[in-house]
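Supplementary Note 3. Input sequence used for the single-chain structure prediction.
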Amino acid sequence: MRDDAEVIWRVLTGEASVFRALVQRYERPLFCFLRNLLDNVADCEDVAQDVFLAAYCNLGSYRPESARFSTWLFTIARNKCLNLLQKRRPALLAEMPEQIDKRSPNAALEQDDFFRQLDAALAALPFEQKTAFVLAEIQDLSLEEIAQVEGVGVGTVKSRLSRAKEKLRAQLQPKAEPA
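The predicted structure, written as discrete structure tokens, is reproduced below.
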């Protein structure tokens, strides 16, 4: 199936199994988005499942003239994340996936340290700035699409992005060694 509109039309006309094409098309970008907003992989998996279920159940309310399907899906995901985060306190330690590391020990330490600092800096951002940053820099959405997901104007998105980048820059700048 080449485009989302065809798949959606087929699902709405009774071919429910065709929805699988949308899941396969968007599961990776959606999971990447969720992984950047939530600390726990299990939470990401649960929210992703909830997002696709909500999208399927509400597919009749999707309006292609208002937004691309991916934008609509990310909006659902953002709202589900916000609901989850409001219900729970953030976990102190996130689970780290086990992987085989082929980097040199020094390179691995430097990169791991940088990513820990980046994760901590992202976690310290207000939710609105964090989602705007992730949608822009990781999901590569346009300012207009982010504005749709966030339910705000483009100017507000620009402001949130600017503040997020400023805070991240300040957090990630190398600290001067004491003399």
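The CA atoms of residues 55 and 61 lie 9 Å apart. Residues 1-89 form a domain with the Rna Polymerase Sigma Factor; Chain: A fold (CATH 1.10.1740.10).
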